[in-house]
From TrEMBL:
Residue span(s) of domain Glycoside hydrolase 35 catalytic: 50-259
Pfam families: DUF5597, Glyco_hydro_35
Domain DUF5597 positions: 392-524
Organism placement in taxonomy: Bacteria, Pseudomonadati, Pseudomonadota, Gammaproteobacteria, Lysobacterales
InterPro entries, alphabetized: DUF5597, GH, Gly_Hdrlase_35_cat
Name assigned to this protein: Beta-galactosidase
């Protein structure tokens, strides 16, 4: 070996070492920069992504029961979230616990939640149970409940106090703002680098149960005034009083504005301390319910008040839906109402039952940023076991590939469907290709021309286009056939069907499928279905 050869090689070694070290440093820096990047919602045209650590993230969440975010019961509850394969836990912070006396903040619960979520590698959507919880004020501190003179309640039309704080009293607003800001400031301190908490829900199902609007003196005076110009302008309505502008819906609209405006100020104060993405959740006006204050909290972000809410609460990044049905028409109707150019689909709560599991696919297919099942902790029962099995199967399949799904959805490359009763076939179009989805075919072999569908309508399928002629497919109780539909005389063919799975975002190849496993379509069973990576071509 010549000296120069040696030195060249030594130089090369030094150079590659330098490159490796620089690369590692850069990687480290980028990783740190990504970790330090605040979670945020981004929008391109009418598509959305929630960025977590700098990349799109699908929220596959489970919400704890209302009284489970206490250190004594939290470990068991969080273990049940982990068992579901959720990547995010939705858990409340209770105002009554957080501020036991005016201006004294107790962070015990919050600190425990974050520490224990981290131990389990869970992200957190923090639910601020403040002035509103299910259209009432049950989570405000005792010192507020006892002092209605300082912290007035909404009065009903007979002048009787309700169990809702008045949204027209500055003492109420200021107290909530102060507490929420303190919460967000503490969060920034303990989580501002790590971002275990990725979302904050401001209040819970706001609006009023027991009255359509507050009838206190301040509220009555405001009701006689004109609708704020910013609202009429945004809604494209002429100026006028609430009665003139909204007619029979005036009281509900008035309360929606008062509620949204109050929450806007709470959220804005919180964001000043720590600007995480914030949303509200909605007790829906659905299932034939139509009486505000009775059927649902008056003044929440229900579909009839949606525009008004968006106009009145710019600090709220998006509006979520609490969907407690497994009826296909009702479920998909609600998703359609809230998945809009100005709002991403986001199921902030849904019933923890097997029947809601297929709708995760529907939500993702509508560009949704996430989905959360409610009340996953607690005692075992056959019902709970069935619900856990269905949702754990979903989350277990999708969580390891959630980043791929979120990115594809944001880029318009993802389509997904849930089985509609009575409709055993669906077609998804991707450029020159169609994915023909059917339900009720055998695991392999010819299907009956008249397909029965699944008796429990549990079919669901998701397709991501990864290249013009490459697709990822996965689902449950469904068959998928790929067909080329371009009108150029060429035929489509399957070139390669890889079966595998994602593990922490990495593809793990298991085997190639062919013969009976592809000649009768690509079939997805109910138990532990795979992910297929399919390359197609023409001849
Ligand atoms: C919706 C609420 O937002 C939750 O906190 C909980 O009360 C559920 N309803 C119970 O069904």
């Amino acid at each position: 070996m010549t000296a120069s050869g040696f030195s060249i090689r030594r130089g090369a070694v030094r150079w590659s070492l330098r490159r490796a070290v620089t690369g590692l440093l850069l990687f480290g820096l980028c990783a740190t920069a990504a970790a330090q990047e605040l979670p945020r919602l981004i929008r391109a045209q009418d598509r959305y992504a929630l960025l977590v650590d700098g990349a799109p993230y699908t929220v596959l969440a489970a919400q704890l029961h209302n009284s489970s975010a206490w250190p004594a019961v939290l470990p068991g509850a969080l273990d049940q979230v982990v068992a579901l394969h959720a990547n995010t836990v939705e858990a409340p912070v209770y105002w009554e616990q957080f501020e036991p006396s005016p201006g004294r903040y107790d962070t015990t619960n919050l600190d425990a939640l974050i520490a224990q979520a981290r131990q389990r590698d869970l992200r957190v959507a923090l639910l601020w149970f403040g002035s509103w919880k299910n259209g009432q004020m049950h989570y405000v501190p005792e010192w507020i409940k006892r002092d209605a003179a300082t912290y007035p309640r909404a009065l009903d039309e007979r002048g009787q106090p309700t169990e809702v704080l008045s949204p027209h009293a500055s003492a109420n607003l200021e107290a909530d703002q102060r507490a929420f800001s303190a919460l967000m400031a503490h969060l920034r301190k303990i989580d501002g680098q790590r971002h275990t908490v990725i979302l904050v829900q401001v209040e819970n199902e706001p609006g009023a149960i027991g009255t359509v609007r507050d009838h206190g003196a301040a509220a009555n005076a405001a009701f006689a005034q004109s609708v704020p110009a910013a609202i009429t302008a945004r809604l494209g309505k002429p100026a006028g009083t609430w009665q003139q502008v909204f007619g029979p819906d005036a009281e509900e609209a008035f309360n929606a504005y008062a509620t949204a405006h109050y929450i806007e100020q709470v959220a804005a104060a919180g964001k000043q301390a720590y600007p995480l993405p914030m949303y509200v959740n909605t007790w829906l006006r659905y299932k034939g319910k139509k009486y505000p204050g009775l059927d649902y909290p008056s003044g929440g972000a229900t579909v009839n008040m949606f525009e008004l809410w968006r106009a009145a609460s710019p600090s709220i990044d998006f509006i979520g839906t609490d969907i407690y049905t497994n009826d296909y028409n009702e479920y998909t109707k609600v998703i359609g109402q809230y998945a809009r150019a100005d709002n991403p689909a986001w199921v902030s709560e849904t019933g923890f039952e097997p029947g809601t599991a297929p709708y995760l696919f529907h939500v993702l297919g509508q560009g949704g940023i996430g989905f959360s099942v409610f009340g996953v902790d607690g005692a075992d029962s056959p019902e709970k076991e069935a619900a856990s099995a269905a949702h754990a199967a979903n989350f277990g399949l999708l969580a390891p590939m959630q980043r791929i799904l979120a990115k594809a959805a944001f880029e318009g490359r993802l389509q997904a469907v849930a089985e509609q009763p009575g409709q055993p076939r669906r077609t998804l179009r991707f450029g020159d290709w169609e994915v023909r989805v059917s339900y009720g075919a055998p695991a392999w072999g010819d299907a009956d021309p008249i397909l029965p569908g699944n008796s429990d309508h549990a079919g669901r399928l998701l397709v991501v286009q990864t290249a013009p002629e490459q697709f990822l497919l996965t689902g449950f109780a469904a068959r998928a056939e790929l067909a080329r539909v371009a009108d150029d005389g060429r035929h489509g063919q399957l070139l390669r069907v890889e079966q595998g799975r994602y593990q922490d975002g990495q593809w793990r190849f298991e085997r190639l499928l062919n013969g009976d496993q592809t000649d009768y379509g690509l079939n997805f069973g109910r138990e532990d279905p795979p992910v297929l990576r399919v390359t197609v071509g023409t001849y």
